[in-house]
Design goal:
Order of helices and strands of chain A: EEEEEEE
CATH architecture of chain A: Sandwich
Strand content of chain A: over 45%
Strand content of chain B: 35-45%
Number of strands of chain B: 9
Radius of gyration of chain A: 16 Å
Number of domains of chain B: 1
Largest sheet of chain A: 4 strands, antiparallel
Radius of gyration of chain B: 22 Å
Distance between the termini of chain A: 22 Å
Largest sheet of chain B: 6 strands, mixed
Distance between the termini of chain B: 55 Å
CATH class of chain A: Mainly Beta
CATH superfamily of chain A: Immunoglobulins
CATH topology of chain A: Immunoglobulin-like
CATH architecture of chain B: Sandwich
Number of helices of chain A: 0
Number of strands of chain A: 7
Helix content of chain A: under 10%
Shape of chain A: elongated
Order of helices and strands of chain B: HHHEEEEEEEEE
Oligomer: heterodimer
Shape of chain B: elongated
Structural class of chain A: mainly beta
Strand order of the largest sheet of chain A: 4-3-6-7
Chain lengths: 102, 154
Amino acid sequence: MSTIKIRAKESKGIVTVKALMKHPMETGQRTNKKTGDKFPAHFIQEVVGKANGEEVITVHWGPAVSKNPYLTFAYSGSKGDKLELTWLDNQGNTDSQISEVK
Amino acid sequence: MNRRNFLKNSLMTAATITTFAGLLIKPKRVFAAWPKESFDITDLNESIKSVYGHNNVNETSKIKLKAPDIAENGAIVPINVKSSLNNVESIMVFVENNPQPLSCGYNLTTKSQPIIGTRIKMGKTSTVMAAVKSDGKIYTASKEVKITIGGCGG
């Protein structure tokens, strides 16, 4: 199953997008109390939002974004747009999801 | 050093260099736009400088920064930024007392509206600053958020 949940709604020509991603967002500063080692950093660095293939937003995240990050943004668009979100983390993993604007 | 050794060594060096170069270039190509330096800086002013190239920022009431006055859990602090400025190019969120002040950055296009929201982690009570780049100028709005339980480290 995809790690991204998207909810996109259009009102008066503006599409509001709400998305939830499943990701640990490890900062690299937390220590494992049993071993004393640090958990390696593992966080989403980039999220790209595309509407009908055209880029509408590029998000750069640092490790300070919460676990299972939540994102909202808005753009001028219309109902039925194919909205695609793609994330890329610092370990090279990636995932994407396409949703239709309601 | 004789000829055979010399050849062997130079071949080895060449191979090592290519491998290292490959390693160095690869992540850069993948994350071409992710500003690692800016995210690593530990001082607020330096961080702003590294993002925009200067420290010339103006406070404005045209940015609405919505954040809680008191956040019980520093691991989840909801932040919403809305702006009525024209031609917004980017929105950045800085947290002064975090280990790295730059939390997140949003690069907008001509189609996007200057409305963003997310949830961030905060280590301790700090000023949260939203910086908006509009028509080449930087405008900011700040708000203090009190934290009861820190969200970094542990």
